[in-house]
């Protein structure tokens, strides 16, 4: 799957992943009204609204980008109906041939980690048959329980030719409270990057430079990204924090290798809620999907210009 992701990045010339992180305040009024008319102001109604909202965005941008990244918490808040909307979103995106990165940030040990890995990336055994659960192509993973939490995921990645993105240096302001702590002369995130590179070396596809084990490094920390790019030369980096969190194209150049690959940049509300921004307000709620498309095109130009000038 890592090679499919790379192929689609090259085809679209857009190292971009759209974060499908729906919140009700982003969903235009006409979509909410239609959903509530059918299901009432219920969890089912909310789930229908976010599903229809997602579908409109995907229809508008699927030909421009290689991948999407639904954040499962935005669906879990609506309970079982929300999880059904999550699964419908995953399936629909795969129908559109998009690579799906499940932003689930799982991290545990033993049989629990195995269950997470199977549920999101692999197949679960039911009697004599096996079934895919959520069936994303990649999943984000929290590594702070150590190899016991990662090994079940890499096992499934090898079996299914899928991938993970391991949290290394996250984009949030307080990430440094732990990730920047100096241990044996260097910050914890650097130690984590070295470990990701080791996990990745043992989890390579038959062809290609990049491992099934990727890393998450925030766009809001470009200097750390520059260092980690050198620490993890064969690791694909998922870079959150573009746009709404302050990251710009110029901050991103060092996340890429000299081949122009090695990173994919995430934007969530900067794209899916673009119509609520002054720059795209003329689209209005009725044109929210077209506003998302325009935001993707602008992001693509910003990144291309930054990479061309490095």
Search tags:
eight-stranded parallel beta barrel; 12 helices; TIM Barrel; alpha/beta; 310 residues
Description:
This protein starts with a helix and ends with a helix. An eight-stranded parallel barrel has the order 1-2-3-6-7-10-11-12, surrounded by seven helices. It has a two-stranded antiparallel sheet with strand order 4-5. Helices cover 45% and strands 16% of the residues. It is α/β, with parallel strands linked by helices and 310 residues long. Strand 8 (182-183) and strand 9 (186-187) form a beta hairpin. It has helices at 2-12, 29-39, 43-61, 73-76, 79-95, 110-120, 147-160, 176-179, 188-201, 222-231, 269-272, 288-308, and strands spanning 16-18, 67-68, 99-106, 123-126, 129-132, 138-141, 163-169, 182-183, 186-187, 213-217, 237-239, 263-267.
Q: Could you name the CATH class?
A: Alpha Beta
Overall geometric form: globular
Enumerate how many helices there are, as a single number: 12
Over the alpha carbons, how many angstroms does the gyration radius reach?
A: 19 Å
Mean pLDDT: 95
Helix and strand string, N-terminal first?
Answer: HEHHEHHEHEEEHEHEEHEHEEHH
Major sheet attributes: 8 strands, parallel, barrel
Instruction: Calculate the terminal CA-CA distance, rounded to whole Å.
Output: 29 Å
Number of strands: 12
Helical content (DSSP H or I, runs of 4+): 40-55%
Strands of the largest sheet, in order across it?
A: 1-2-3-6-7-10-11-12
CATH superfamily: Aldolase class I
Strand content: 15-25%
